[in-house]
Each structure stands twice: as C-alpha cells, then as structure tokens.
Amino acid sequence: MEEFRLGEAKIETEGFTIGFRRRPAARTVTLEATSAGEDHGHASDPYEPEAAAEPEAIKGIPITSPMNGIFSASPSPSSPAFVKEGETISAGQVVGLIEAMKVFNEIPSTVSGTVIKLVAETGAMVQPGDVLLYVG
C-alpha cells in the first residue's frame, strides 16, 4: 500500500472480503491568506498521492558490468581512482576492477569520450548489465 500510495484496498472472493485502510500518521495544515487578510486552515488529504519526481535521464553511453562481483574504482584503497567525472578517457582504458572469486578483473571502456557520471561505488556488488559509469 505504501509503495503505490494507496489509502485503502479491498479484495473480494467467494465467501469472504478483506479490506485494508491506512491510518494517517498526521494531518498537515496549510494556511492560506484570503483577500480580507483572514487565514483559513485547510487539512491536506493524507491519502492523496504525491506527484512523483521523475528521475533525470542521464545522457551518455553506459559502460556496464560484464560479470558478477565486487566493484572497485581504484587498484588499491590508497591509490587514486582509475577515472573521475569530467575526465577524458579512451576506448580500452581501464575504468575499474571487479573482484570475482578472489580474482581482480580489469573493466575496459568500450568507447572514447568524457566521463559524465560514475554510478557504481567501490565495494558495491554488481551484476552483469549494471551500469558502472556513463561516457559522453
């Protein structure tokens, strides 16, 4: 119910009916000034779905993980990252490592361009097809 912002739900089948109703946590009051200068409190409907903010689409070519494993942005914890946002890279350049079964596999860029956004974080578990970074 929370995921779809439902205030109530009802399921009916042969022989029984189940209904759920969400209890409002708290009613918020907004004050609006009228032309006469009076304030009137209006309670907002807690079951009214909020407008979902659409995520901004990232432009660029995604470099994706070819395998399962743990991503690392640098060769060692004390070393600088292979690439940084805003940096120009070339096709074949190593952009990170994926550790799988105690073996560190270099992940090369498939395209040349500028790193627009780094998505994967060091220590994150990645799956085949997960975006590591975007290149524009």
Secondary-structure blueprint of this entry?
Elements: E1 8-13, E2 16-21, E3 29-33, E4 39-43, E5 61-64, E6 69-72, E7 88-89, E8 94-100, E9 103-108, E10 113-118, E11 125-126, E12 131-135
Antiparallel strand pairs: 1-2, 3-4, 5-12, 6-8, 6-11, 7-10, 8-9, 10-12
CATH H-level homologous superfamily name of the largest domain: RNA polymerase II/Efflux pump adaptor protein, barrel-sandwich hybrid domain
Q: Tell me which CATH architecture of the largest domain applies here.
A: Beta Barrel
Strand tally is: 12
CATH T-level fold name of the largest domain: OB fold (Dihydrolipoamide Acetyltransferase, E2P)
* Largest sheet properties: 4 strands, antiparallel
> Percent of residues in helical segments?
under 10%
Structural class: mainly beta
Name the CATH class of the largest domain: Mainly Beta
Strand content: 35-45%
Parts with pLDDT < 50 across at least 5 consecutive residues: none
Q: Can you describe this structure?
A:
This protein folds into 2 domains: 36 residues, no CATH class; 75 residues, RNA polymerase II/Efflux pump adaptor protein, barrel-sandwich hybrid domain (OB fold (Dihydrolipoamide Acetyltransferase, E2P)). The protein is built from no helices and 12 strands. The strands form 4 sheets. The chain has a 4-stranded antiparallel β-sheet with strand order 5-12-10-7, with no helix packed on it. A 4-stranded antiparallel β-sheet has the order 9-8-6-11, with no helix packed on it. A hairpin with a 5-residue loop joins β3 and β4. It is elongated and about 65 Å long. The two termini are 39 Å apart.
